[in-house]
Amino acid sequence: MTKKNLLDQIQYPTDLRKLKKEKLKQLAKELREELIDVVSTTGGHLGAGLGVVELTVALHYVFNTPKDKLVWDVGHQAYPHKIITGRRDNIRTLRKGGGLSGFTKRSESEYDPFGAAHSSTSISSTLGMAVAKSLSNNSNHVIAVIGDGAMSAGMAYEAMNNAGAMKSKLIVILNDNDMSIARPVGAMSSYLARLLSGKTYFGFREIIKFITSLFSKRFKDKAGKAEVFIRDIVSGGTLFNELGFYYVGPIDGHDLDSLVPVLNNVKNSKYDGPILVHLVTKKGKGYKPAEDSRDKYHGVGKFNIVTGEQSKSKTKVPTYTKVFANTLVKHAENDTKIIGITGAMPSGTGMDIFGKKFPDRMFDVGIAEQHAVTFAAGLATEGYKPFAAIYSTFLQRAYDQVVHDVAVQNLPVRFAIDRAGLVGADGPTHAGSFDITYLSTLPNFVVMAASDEAELVRMINTAVSINDRPTAFRYPRGNGLGVELPEINEILEIGKGKIVKEGNKVAILSFGGRLQECLKAASKLDAKGISTTVADARFAKPLDQKLIMNLCLNHEVLITIEEGSIGGFGSHVFQMLSEKGIFDKGLKIRSMILPDQFIDQDTPENMYKTAGLDAEAIEQKILNALKSNIVIPKAKQFN
User: Among the options 88, 95, 133, 283, which is catalytic?
Assistant: First the structure.
């Protein structure tokens, strides 16, 4: 670790607040260098943190954290915050097993009062804190930093509307960096851009100040009201003012000479209500490769600091995301009704590839999954074939729309669910743990999971062909297996699984990405003389009842396996078998699912080992089932 004279003196913000104000620029410079050095070795989110270095320093300098509550939205902006809040010694464990989270996390530090990994939650959560403090007669401040596209989500405006109506004492910092993960879309982005470009307001403000300085207090008071009127008309701050916020800005978010006094003024303001401070920052600030990059180095792997070149995977096997995108492009070349939709994640979902080929048929709606789903439903009513490509964990935010606007109306919206299962360094907040459960429970849905990239192609093909109901297909993060891809005319029979390996004693029924681990376990069991069948279910809904019944009737043990929570594939299998009376015949049946806990970040391999869903755990589950001879006596208690 390179010695940094000022940063080495800062263990906690109390140390920072001892510095003279003139030293803050040097501290910010050292903090930015440290951030670049750290992420070059750990990978992670870089551009957003680079853009808030000065803001981080100013906030902790002005406010009395952690007594004053500071919430970062989205949490990936918080790497500089972590470095100066007691976590610098561990910062190189970022996003690793047993290390620091890549987001804010309550259990990690008292300086993280609210965990944030999904966007647009900061104003709602800090409003709750502000009301709690008011009820407790606590005068400490509550500050929300919202940016990196998070203001494109409706939840932020719901919270602002509520805060303004309640006249709550709350400070919101709008970090306007003109970016989310991709460039932001929508009217709000244009509105803020117009605010920034308008110079007239500043001229009027200086004129008003000059005039009022020459006259009496009574005139000043009236002129002050006039300034508010002028600000509303000229600056465009009307939106925030109408929501009940006192608007301050826009301000250069990298200018500490402006930031510190403005934040001090806001802190000491007697205004009885919420205040919004509009800062203009540059994502990737201070690191040229990030500034020049299209996504401002939003999320990076390890990289060379001098050149900015990122370490690339040596495998030539495409990612599941790329297979999805390329397959959808092929279909769209033949079918003009196919539409691509994403929520601020074009590169993450592969929709950037689709958008390059069909710019008029790809819609990035911003961080607004609820809108994305209902927008897709509207397209479906008009005979179009919308593919909503949304991470499993983000689709959770739109569940009511999936139920009410898609499933109830039986509309043929296609959900491409990326990042299914455990996802590694992003940890539990981004794990796709629940979609099998929350989609399979819905009437009318077809729910599929790909065991490899060839199966993913077949499922996309199948989804294109289904025009009478909604469909969903899930697939994991990362690279495929390198198998040959089928043509786009190869579709699956709905509700039809397949036998992958034949045996006669034990049956393993896999749904999704654990199939290879099932085959490894089967190989070990075969070596022990335990003949094992392995089947790929393909569908959680509708189930292949014939396949499952045959597995039950011809094997001593049946194990279901899925990368999802309780209530999903295995639960549906059990319900079906219960109705068929299979359990009356003494079959040994078990289900392997994600455990009832959130699993912290690590490599995917280690996470699945922790979850008990690797080959070793599968083998042991089967061996235990074969040994089981539990008999529950009648009229006695089971202990």
Answer: 283
